[in-house]
Amino acid sequence: MDHEPTISRDVSAKPGKGRGLGRDVVVASICGGVVALMVGASYAAVPFYNWFCRATGFNGTTQVATSAPATGPIARKISVRFDSNVAPGLPWKFEPEQSEIEVNIGQVVTVFYTVTNQAARTTAGQAAYNVAPLTVGSYFQKINCFCFTEQTMAPGEKREMPVVFYVDPSIAEDRENDGLNTITLSYTFYPVRDPVVKPLAASEDDKRKGNL
Q: Domain for residue 100, yes or no?
């Protein structure tokens, strides 16, 4: 009796193995894309948050003005306190020349902070700021402020830094602030690890040029 020819079969091959490998590659690619998107979003969130705070006064962020208010000062007065802080890693002494003043709302005022580099080397820092209570950030208008630029100081250098500001008269129309008597302006200097190379402080005669 004739025997039918036999056909060898590779029993080691498993159905669907290629499809499974392809599916794993797709899933890995999607996960990688999601991670990259999340990292990018986290970096984009920082400048967006800063822009939002400056535009709305949220979280006590003060506003930037280019001139005095059009309506001028009003009779209502308010006390402004000045707070100063230095973050770890920056060898500076930083303090306001006055701890508190009383001003008319809408009055343009210039105050000075003093900062001293107590290190035997050149150091650099930049200030962050806010006001309290946090709800008055949109009414606190700064015309000139040292916090807008990075500060580089020589060993042992002492410098006077002006802040020119006013409290917007429109705060008097905000019924939530009818009982407001005091605003605190707070600064914190943080170290700058890779400072921009630029000239050091101007001469003694130029220290108070920020006064209006």
A: yes
